Predict the structure of ABC transporter substrate-binding protein.
Amino acid sequence: MIPHRAGAAGAFALLLFATTACGGSGGNGGSADDGELNVMMYQDSLAVVQKNAAKRFNENHEDIKAVVNEVPGDGYEDKLRTVMGSGESPDMFFNWGGGSIESYVEQEMLLPLGATLQENPEMKEAFIPSIFEAGKVNDTQYGIPLRGTQPVMLFYNEQVFEDAGVEPPETWQDLLDLVDTFKEEGVTPFALGGATPWTEQMWMQYLVDRLGGYEVFQRIQNGDSEGWRDPAVLEAAEMVQDLVDRGAFGDNYASVSYTEGAASALLSEGKAAMHLMGSWEYSTQLADAEEFAKNDLGYTAFPALPDGEGNPQAVVGNPTNFFSVTDDGDSEAEVDFLKQTYSDEYVQDMVENGEVPATANSEEMIQEHSPNPDYATFQYQMVRDAPTFQLSWDQALDRSVAEPMVTEIEKLFNKQVTPEEFVDNVAALK
């Protein structure tokens, strides 16, 4: 999923804090060796948590000062590439794991955290295992979770469901039956922002995971492009086009924009019954349709496929965001800062800011401090109980593959290619 979504991880967060800048634009060459710990952050309303962590760090360290340098979201990845290649890299930086840091790993620019975890076993034990796992590249840990979870969920309009006398889907057949029901009611079954094609990727992700299991995409992420020829990918592509033919997304989805709010508005206005979207959809609805968000916005997990090999409790999306450390030979200060990410003060800041933490055993913190305990608890338990949490394909893969892959998914939804052609096209990407 594209970078700007990282800033919408938590319900209510966008309402509670205004975006602020902290002097500098990241990558100023500050070093722990010369008394400054440079922490490069994605600039948004959620960064207040990391800035508070820096204040606590500085209160406990006399000889070194943590400086959080925020970079505007639209230019974050480009700025990061620039500073990492300039010899003025930050000591620590925000990232999405997976493909977002793979090139830095290949250039041996990042600190492998195996030794750090051996010396500090509580660091690994503090986090939900499926989320912590997403901080690995080639089975080596390079990231420590710094933000809340961002699973893809199925949102629905409770009033529209009540009017139709139906319940949220638990199986794929339930989902297909609902498509027919809502079409008869004159309601688009699923809102889809097809003009923002990463929204279509979510459907493929869940279908491939449910049909073939976590290992199918893991093979692709590990560099084997023939993994695209797994039967689960073709079947998922066929199911997508079956949904299109059934009218599941209406007739105009290709011109509906998610980033401009059009898809979310279809759900809140009752013109669509359901919307498959990341957990940040809650905060989007709260900001744009507060009464609907508080009274009629329902949420559930993606339905099971009884004949599939995947675990029905598995989730996809952005597990979280991570801190990675540049390998400068001295990591003591960086490790001290990383320890903040699972401290009670840090986790409470996150929860109060509307995020759902990636730390284990956080139910009590959520109940006591979340602006919406019911929603946060549902999301937390969904992620906690997931055997796997698959990183969004366009974040897991290198940019050179991810961008044309999303284009191929868009063509699949628009029926510009057949399912077989889709498989051939993505398998050819290198």
About this structure: The chain has 22 helices and 13 strands. The first helix runs from residue 13 to 16.
